[in-house]
Each structure stands twice: as structure tokens, then as C-alpha cells.
């Protein structure tokens, strides 16, 4: 049976570009794949025919010979694998043709593309996280703090190589340093992690006794950390290369310090502003006067209470808040008054308060306004 024209097999014209030919073959390979045509007994032969056509037309030299002599250009060899004028190339079989578009059809199958690459000989160490609790006073001033971090460090015995005496690892004989091996399964080339070196690409004949060939050992490290002023809960500080040591001399990871600022017994924080709730007596709120309030820097500030101040009234002390983490600005401090009702009154104090109440019916505008509104509400309900 005469062979079909390769251009007809792929459904392209004779002047088609290399990209058009490849695209046409991808389409044909998907359409004719035996796994998708189990009920069609001719699917496999058509699939192979498309692969044979693509193997010829993808190669500029073969394509030129085919365009000039047709199928006769390859009669001196064994099918699509022969070069013009005879002689088998050794690379021109159908599996080779199909593997050229294997990744385009199915992605990175089994975790690796074509060509591969050197194995991961020196794996980077993992990043570490350290949670650090500090006081609001420390967050205001900043501090230098020493922390102990349990981590992996480079083995001193083998200098991180993992080999006894610090000898350099040798290339894995199974994968030739690629870290991956390939196996032919029908039309497919399956790529897997090398079982000998576990993907490292190198092997250690005499592992270091101290680290077991890992090139690193577990150890607590003491680090001095600079906590800048203005940090708040959630602030993350990165210490480059202070994380876990890499395997077999690989680069270390990073250390991330996450800050948590404890609650303060006097101040509440909102970004760079501070809030302080200050109780004042009824007489101080009514008559006014001066009070002293604490500030986060350990100092004192005198605040004037206006006459007739009510609970919840706020007064601002500019520049008495927290420093900004980035930039030279400083927040404010807000004083919130809490008018305190006296308790455990003596008989004389009660007598004076009753007398005061009788004389102060017009001195409570808020309560007077409220009860007028209540009376109006009740009157409206009755009508």
C-alpha cells in the first residue's frame, strides 16, 4: 500500500511553516491518540503515521529531501529514521518525534520537562519563624534583644559537605548528575527522580559521622536582634541568611521575627496614637482644675480640666504618642475623662449632696433635656 503524502497526513500545505507543522501535529496527536480511540482499531496506525510525518517535516534537512524526492528519499534507511542517501540517524524514531511535543500536550509530566537539568545538589535551607513578645514601653523606645533559636547549622566536622573529611561528593553514576532518570513506556518517555541520589545528582561514598551525610546538625543559636522603635503587633523583621542551613553546603534560609506587643496597664494603642482613660472626681469635673497624667516616655504632663467636663471628654497632647516605624513623625496622646461617682459617703456628705441637689436643678442641662424629651414622648403616647 502506497504511503500517504506527509503534508496530507498532517493536513497542512507544502509551504507551511515549522510552527504550523508543529501545531498541526499537536492537534492530530490529540485527535488520534489510542487512549482516546479505544473503539477504533485503526487509531494506533494513524497515530504512528502522524508521528512519522512530523518526524520528517520538522527537520529542515529531511523536509528538503522529501520535498524534492518524496518518499523515495528515505528508502535507503528504515522508515522515518533514515537520513537522505542512507544511514540511520539513531534519533529519528517515532518516540523522538512524539516527545518533541510531549510537554505541549500534557505539561510537565511526572514533575519534569524535557532536557531536565542538573539535580539539586545543594538545597537551600528552610526559612524559620520566631515569635517575640515585647512590652509597649520597649516598642516605644526600641531595644536590642538576644534570642535563642533552635535550628540547623552547617556541620563543623565536614564543613557542610556531608562527606567524611570534607571530601567533595561524586557525581551519581545512575543519573550522571541530572538528578532524574528516564524510562521508555510505549510511546512515552517517563521521567522520575533518581532513586540512587534522591534527586541530588551527587552521592557521598563515606558520609560524615557527625551529620549522617546531611551537611548540617541541630543546634541552638544565640542571635542579637535590633527591634526598631515604633513596631507593633504583626510587624515582621527579616534576618537574611539566619534561617536553617542548607543541605550539603547549600545556602541558608532566612529568619523571620514576628512581633507581638503586650497590652499596657495604662495606655491603649491605635497605630501611632495612645489613649489614656483618667478618672476625675465629680467636684473636679464640675469646678475644673489641673491634673497630672503619665506619658509613655515615663514623664508627666499637666492637663487643665475645663469647668463642667463630662465623662468621655477627650483632650489631646500632641507628640506624646508612639513614634512611626518608618519616618520621623510621632503620634498624639488622648486623655479621656471618666467622671467618678463617690461611694461610701458619710452622713454629712449625704446631707451636703442633698442640699446641693436642691440648689442645682438648672445646673444639669443634659438630664433636663433628656427628661423633657421623655415627657414629650409619654404625652404623645397618651394622645
TrEMBL record:
Residues 142-220 form the CR-type domain. A zinc finger (CR-type) spans 142-220. Zn(2+) 1 binds at residues 155, 158, 208, 211. Residues 5-70 form the J domain. CXXCXGXG motif repeats lie at residues 155-162, 172-179, 194-201, 208-215. It is found in: Cytoplasm. SMART domains: DnaJ (SM00271). Binds 2 Zn(2+) ions per monomer. The J domain is necessary and sufficient to stimulate DnaK ATPase activity. Zinc center 1 plays an important role in the autonomous, DnaK-independent chaperone activity of DnaJ. Zinc center 2 is essential for interaction with DnaK and for DnaJ activity. Belongs to the DnaJ family. Homodimer. This is Chaperone protein DnaJ. The gene is dnaJ.
